[in-house]
């Protein structure tokens, strides 16, 4: 258990380096620069960020454990299997980007509209940023994390909760510790007009996250869901623009309530397409079809049992469109010519187990291998012996070596 707690903490620290977290963490860099002359406020924001991360992690863990207690096989990142959750994250990211671009302001008094920020609402904003950061971190799985999460999901609820809290503490540790060291204030540049440019520039990583999530939603629920979320984004952006105009009119003492009513009306319209997302997702996902078409044999536990031990290695790729680490491994290792040549030379049967949408067989397989989330790569030797679980971060050399060893076992037998 202590090993799992330490691995979870270390994995949480490394999780900050994953690309899915960068857009949100970059907001905290802006916050540190803004408050570099006020160490006490910087410390308070660091603690608020920590609280937001831990509370959200506890809430996610509670839902996860309750779902598993009810018989559902779910693991780390389970909420990304819901089109509605992905759509909500898209709108949150889009709203953050529009706010950074100055279309409207949040948490500011009327007299400070247009400035980079203020103290008002800063702690709440830090806590909400921590909550958002841990939610968007779930598509990524850092080294040391998989074994810790897999172990946690096999333990009693209290032990599971302790391990997940350790993961949250590791995730929040870098920013929280930095906020507690005033000496770093001497390194940071002084606030100035350049911060407005920086603030606007940070909107583009958020927009990049929006684009990625829209792609995931389309892969998960199809083109009808794509049309629905694009309509939502348009309506939401128009409502944000109206709200920004209302703020400016209020600042100048002009009538603004009509714009607030219009803002509420267009926000209400956003709900209409969202209500249909789950219906769109009921159709077979295009992502699963595309993934299985690329594989030599469709994955299922029954197919694996029927094929293994017949003189050919089996490579199973447990993946999902929302798993960024999976997509990187696919392009840097599994899709390379060297690995494809090794598969052909060793007569490897390649299978893809897609978890973009909820798949109880995939979730059960992850649990059987002691993993709490994606990615997972399993090589079954040609002789039908014990399968080998590959590291979460692949290189072509790792895959080729595993395939060669799996083939040699078959030749020896």
Please, could you describe this protein's structure?
The protein is built from 18 helices and 4 strands. With 413 residues, it is mainly alpha-helical. It folds into 2 domains: 215 residues, no CATH class; 127 residues, Glutaredoxin (3-Layer(aba) Sandwich). Strands 2-1-3-4 form a 4-stranded mixed β-sheet. A hairpin with a 7-residue loop joins β3 and β4. The two termini are 38 Å apart.
Strand order of the largest sheet: 2-1-3-4
Rounded radius of gyration (Å): 24 Å
H/E element order: HHHHHHHHHHHHHHEHHEHEEH
Percent of residues in beta strands = under 5%
- Write down the domain tally: 2
Regarding quaternary structure, how should these chains be classified? single chain
Which descriptor suits the 3D outline? Answer: globular
Largest sheet: 4 strands, mixed
Low-confidence stretches: 107-120, 284-294
Distance between the termini: 38 Å
Average per-residue pLDDT, rounded, comes to 80
| Total DSSP E strands | 4
Class inferred from helices and paired strands? mainly alpha
Secondary structure: helix percent: 55-70%
Number of helices: 18
């Amino acid at each position: 258990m202590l090993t799992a707690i330490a691995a979870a903490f270390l994995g949480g620290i490394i999780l900050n380096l994953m690309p899915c977290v960068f857009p949100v963490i970059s907001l905290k860099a802006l916050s540190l620069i803004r408050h570099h002359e006020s160490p006490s406020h910087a410390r308070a924001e660091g603690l608020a960020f920590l609280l937001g991360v831990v509370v959200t992690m506890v809430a996610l863990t509670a839902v996860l454990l309750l779902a598993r207690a009810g018989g559902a096989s779910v693991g780390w990142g389970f909420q990304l299997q819901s089109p509605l959750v992905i759509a909500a994250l898209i709108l949150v990211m889009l709203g953050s980007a529009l706010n950074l671009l100055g279309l409207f302001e949040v948490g500011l008094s009327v007299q400070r509209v247009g400035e980079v920020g203020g103290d008002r609402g800063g702690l709440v904003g830090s806590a909400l940023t921590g909550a958002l950061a841990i939610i968007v971190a779930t598509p990524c799985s850092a080294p040391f994390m998989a074994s810790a999460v897999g172990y946690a999901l096999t333990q009693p609820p209290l032990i599971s909760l302790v391990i997940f809290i350790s993961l949250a503490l590791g995730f929040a540790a870098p920013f929280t510790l930095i906020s507690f060291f005033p000496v770093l204030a001497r390194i940071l540049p002084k606030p100035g007009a350049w911060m407005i440019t920086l603030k606007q520039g940070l909107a583009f990583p958020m927009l990049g996250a929006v684009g990625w999530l829209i792609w995931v939603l389309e892969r998960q629920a199809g083109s009808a869901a794509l049309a629905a979320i694009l309509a939502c984004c348009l309506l939401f952006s128009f409502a944000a623009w109206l709200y920004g105009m209302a703020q400016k009119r209020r600042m100048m003492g002009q009538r603004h309530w009509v714009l607030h009513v219009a803002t509420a009306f267009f926000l209400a319209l956003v709900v209409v397409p969202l209500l249909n997302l789950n219906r769109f997702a009921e159709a077979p996902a295009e992502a699963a079809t595309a993934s299985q078409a690329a594989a030599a044999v469709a994955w299922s536990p029954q197919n694996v049992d029927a094929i293994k031990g017949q003189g050919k290695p089996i490579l199973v790729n447990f993946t999902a469109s929302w798993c960024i680490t999976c997509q990187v491994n696919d392009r840097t290792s599994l899709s390379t010519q060297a690995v494809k040549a090794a598969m052909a030379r060793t007569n490897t049967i390649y299978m893809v187990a897609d978890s973009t949408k909820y798949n109880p067989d995939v979730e059960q397989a992850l649990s059987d291998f002691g993993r709490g989330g994606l990615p997972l790569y399993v090589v079954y030797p040609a002789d039908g012996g014990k399968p080998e679980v590959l590291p979460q971060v692949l290189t072509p050399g790792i895959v080729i070596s595993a395939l060669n060893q799996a083939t040699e076992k078959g030749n020896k037998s």
